[in-house]
Specification:
Two copies of one chain form a homodimer. The first copy, chain A, has 450 residues and is an alpha/beta fold. The first copy, chain A, has two domains: 5-10 and 77-109 and 239-447, Rossmann fold (3-Layer(aba) Sandwich), CATH 3.40.50; 17-66 and 112-232, 3-Layer(aba) Sandwich (Rossmann fold). In chain A, 43% of the residues lie in helices and 16% in strands. Chain A is built from 19 helices and 15 strands. Chain A has helices spanning 42-45, 51-58, 68-74, 86-92, 112-125, 139-151, 161-166, 168-176, 190-198, 206-218, 232-238, 240-252, 267-281, 298-301, 344-351, 362-376, 382-401, 419-426, 437-448; strands spanning 5-6, 16-18, 63-65, 82-84, 97-102, 130-135, 154-160, 180-184, 223-225, 258-262, 287-293, 303-308, 317-322, 356-360, 406-411. Chain A has a seven-stranded mixed β-sheet, with helices on both faces. A four-stranded parallel β-sheet of chain A has the order 8-7-6-9, with helices on both faces. In chain A, strand 12 (303-308) and strand 13 (317-322) form a beta hairpin. In chain A, helix 3 (68-74) runs antiparallel to helix 5, helix 5 (112-125) packs across helix 11 (232-238) and helix 12 crosses helix 13. The longest helix of chain A has 20 residues, at 382-401. Chain A starts with a strand and ends with a helix. In chain A, 60% of the residues are buried. The interface between A and B is large, with 47 and 47 residues.
Chain lengths: 450, 450
């Protein structure tokens, strides 16, 4: 019986994160202050982030040591398994080898826990007693709640109101780990009250929840803010995924020709991909593919430009692929991929043609997830299912061409809390949403005014 | 960094199941035909089970080979990790070592998949095209749905109607794996129609769903029935858990003084415990503890007697600890522990004082689960939380006595689909239900009539 699963012991949790800024030939242009339009210095970010994270945002050191207390928590579930999806290969009748890195085994259910633990650690080290954040469907909120619990910090989560009511399980999970979860917009912040004054029945939005969480952090001395994707330090913390995968491919005596991740803000994609980008920059031949929804086609149809990270135009201006900060994505089930922008580092790599991108509509994505659940057993989150679709299509390409390539994708999270989306798919009720050209042009207009 | 997790490669999936009937000094009295009261022969069970499973029910061979196609599927998630719960130990400040065997990583979420895969395999081998079963909260139904999907058999699940509506996620999971799920009582069977004629709004019960599933199997040539606990062959298939754990304790250079599992029908308990009972029978000193709810105290307050396995008195009479087949347990959240009887093999071991039993009420059980989720991250199913409670209490006893004992419990399943129960606990809405003495005496009366 050949192995399906390539496992590493606790002691193999990486001791350093990989910082791709050390190796990129072109770095993305720096963030600009939203008012002065000057590059943002560390001091401007100090009210909301601890200094070590700000330094990680900007450093060009190649390897950043992972503190022992962080590794000690990561090893509760890390190294995650690298799994050869042999039953999927057989179902596709492909000569390709398909592997997935299973981040879904984290207690919070996704890769998000990797950066949550690190962020809470640095906050605790610098005296933060309380952390505020926003969450949509709840993946990030639950990861941060778990991490705060481990380090004994208070956690305040502003959860988009419509999700708060429609996804009660994620809310329960956060509360079980001790977080204080508030439906946003709330009466607890000026930003929330302003929205409620205009629209008492507002369902909320991620942009609104960000505004509440940032206001909460800025207005209290004991509180900092935490973000689950997009920023350089978040992507840095995710590189444990790719670093472990490289060791596991040695065990498997194999090496990927194609590396795949779904991309919303870019952090799970970067986590698997960046250590492989390093190899590519060093001359190794491989393809790296970011996968997004057609309903929010940031890389495939957006432009590379300075733009705000949020609708409310409060964040620094980031150089990135964006659909415009006014962009309102359709209500697809992959909530984690509904972001108008993309991490600067991922954007720059795409601009420099070091990575590829492609977009899929919902039905082919869920069809891939169904096949995966039926062959490998595991049920992917709707976001993750985008990577599954791309991996399957690459394997089918290999079949057609008779090529024995090796494909790996990041299984960023499980779908246990997303089964209503599967119900809708099985009932034939999912729409294959494309973002209409005229709306896209309209939202891109907002960039010209910057 | 010492290891938390003791991992084995795919190739270490056991090659044989351990059959405790080979080593028990006293075997339980044989099942009796419900009408003739004569011991049931293999031919009487042939209409509902395939012959190899019937033989496994009765054999006294010590080791039963696990067929390769079964091992090939088990290795999708097996061997499951044996995990040292160091953060829990620290929180309790106990000198004890606490380990758990994590069966929750199965794609179906619990140990139930171990027997589902084996049962479907033998059915397929003997030409069965379709399998019917019942499910309450859905753990068993989802495991069987997954297994039928892997072997290409149709799966028909009669799901207790109140759960069908209250636990839609488990229903979705079964449907994603291709099962046909019907709310029970249904119009599809005579048994269901009879109930609906009397009470069109019946919420259903496990007993009723069993009747529908058995009728379905008996009335169709292509269909057999499948049961997820209680029977000898089911317990046999679960022994991979304990066999793996023994190998993992060698890696950990440790050995349990106390082995713990929650017990409803008895299968997850037996799965971990039986290989250790073997050691105990061979002279090794260790304690083995079955944990049940005070609301359904089968071992701790029931009697050892012949009784029906179901309310409708259709099954053979089994010699077991029972509260009486008329017993109606309160609506505790640990649905999998609400069974009036206990597997014959487990019952006999308890009668012979080879194992202990204890019962807990809901609030202390959920308090233990909360502490576990906050220290180890992982959220236990309410059933599993009974084992967590007992493990914590054993560790506290060790602390008080200053003893460095080793404790292991079976983490039978995750609680991702049970978070409403945690909500109720956190809101202080759980009742600590005891089964009242007078009701108990009343239900035990039914046994005297047998």
């Amino acid at each position: 019986m050949s192995d399906n699963r390539f496992l590493l012991p606790d002691s193999a949790v990486p001791e350093q994160w990989y910082n791709i800024q050390a190796d990129m030939k072109t770095l993305p242009p720096p963030p600009l202050h939203p008012v002065t339009r000057e590059p943002v210095g560390p001091e401007a970010l100090a009210p909301i982030f601890p200094m070590e994270l700000i330094q990680q945002e900007m450093t060009r050191e190649r390897w950043i040591p992972i503190p022992d207390p962080v590794r000690d928590i990561l090893r509760l579930w890390r190294p995650t398994p690298l799994v050869r999806a042999r039953r999927l290969e057989q179902a596709l009748d492909t000569p390709a080898h398909i592997y997935y890195k299973n981040e879904g085994i984290s207690p919070a259910g996704s890769h998000k826990a990797n950066t949550a633990v690190a962020q809470v650690y640095y906050n605790k080290k610098e005296g933060t007693r309380r952390i505020s954040t926003e969450t949509g469907a709840g993946q990030w909120g639950s990861a941060l709640s778990m991490a705060c619990n481990f380090f004994g910090l208070e956690c305040k989560v502003y959860m988009v109101k419509v999700s708060y009511h429609q996804k009660p399980y994620r809310r329960s999970l956060m509360q079980l780990w001790g977080a204080n979860v508030t439906a946003s917009p709330s009466e607890e912040t000026a930003a929330g009250r302003a929205v409620l004054a205009k629209d008492p029945d507002s369902p909320g939005s991620l942009g609104m929840a960000i505004s509440e969480a940032v206001e909460d952090a800025v207005s209290r001395d004991d509180t900092k803010y935490s973000l689950g994707s997009v920023l350089n330090h978040v992507l840095l913390h995710q590189t444990v995924i790719g670093l472990e995968a490289q060791k596991q491919f040695e065990l498997a005596d194999d090496y990927p020709d194609v590396v795949i991740g779904c991309a919303g803000g870019g952090s799970n994609f970067a986590g698997l991909a960046f250590p492989f980008v390093k190899e590519k920059l060093a001359g190794r031949k491989l393809r790296i593919v970011a996968v997004e929804p057609t309903a929010c086609p940031t890389l495939t149809r957006g432009v590379f430009s300075y733009d705000f990270g949020d609708v409310a135009q409060m964040t620094p201006l980031l150089a990135m692929y964006t659909l415009g900060h006014d962009f309102v994505p359709s209500g697809i089930h992959a909530g984690g991929l509904r972001y108008h922008g993309m991490a600067s580092l991922v954007s720059q790599l795409y601009k420099d043609e070091l990575i590829e991108a492609r977009a899929y509509a919902q039905n082919p994505v869920f069809a891939a997830a169904e096949l995966f659940a039926k062959t490998e057993g595991v049920v992917p989150a709707p976001e993750t299912a985008h990577a599954v679709r791309a991996a399957i299509d690459e394997a089918l390409r290999c079949k057609e061409a008779g090529r024995r390539e090796t494909i790996v994708f990041n299984f960023s999270g499980h779908g246990h809390f997303d089964l209503t989306a599967y119900d809708a798919y099985l009932a034939g009720k999912l729409e294959d949403l494309e973002y209409p050209e005229e709306k896209l042009q309209e939202s891109l207009q907002s960039l010209k005014a910057l």
